[in-house]
Amino acid sequence: MRLFSLILALGLALPANAQEEPIQHVIESQIGALQDDDFALAFSFASPTIKGLFGTPENFGLMVKEGYPMVYRPSDVDMQDLREIAGNLWQRVRVVDEAGKTWFLDYMMIETPEGWQINAVQILPAPEIGV
Q1: Based on the structure, what is the number of domains in the chain?
Q2: Residue 9 per-residue DSSP state
Q3: Count of beta carbons in the 10 Å neighbourhood of residue 4
Q4: Domain region containing 46
Q5: Domain containing residue 98: CATH number
Q6: Is residue 63 part of a domain?
């Protein structure tokens, strides 16, 4: 009976955790595609809204190079916490750029018929150090 209760409890906890791995995989896959200069693949991980804004993989790639260089050529990427804010899922990501500077970004994720897609990326203010 205890084993059944444990299995049931673990099964009830799976849906929250089940979102984290596929979301992180999408972000890591997009960053990997950007590192390979495969803008078509990187663009495929963007939501319909983002695709509508940029229109082509080339425009998307140019935006990433100019606006998010730390994601275009990171030296290190570390997934942080997944949070729900106002009904939206946000994945925090710590990125270290080629110069060694640390950045924190929030990726807004949406679930579509094609799976999880990136709907927005925010560069967060640097955390206060030594305060």
Answers
A1: 1
A2: H
A3: 8
A4: 2-123
A5: 3.10.450.50
A6: yes
Q: Which two tokens stand for residue 91?
A: 């994945």
Q: How many degrees, rounded to 5, is the angle at CA 14 between CA 42 and CA 12?
A: 150
pLDDT digits (tens, 9 = 90+) for 32-86: 999 999 999 999 999 999 999 999 999 999 999 999 999 999 999 999 999 999 9
Q: Which is it for the CA torsion 17, 110, 92, 43, positive or negative?
A: positive
3-state SS, residue 33: helix
- Does a structural domain hold residue 128? no
Contacts of 129 (CB under 8 A, 6+ apart): none
This prediction has a pTM of 0.83
Q: If DSSP codes are grouped into helix, strand and coil, which group holds residue 58?
A: helix
Query: In this predicted model, what pLDDT tens digit does every residue of 15-43 receive, in sequence order?
Result: 446 799 999 999 999 999 999 999 999 99
Residue 130 located in a structural domain: no
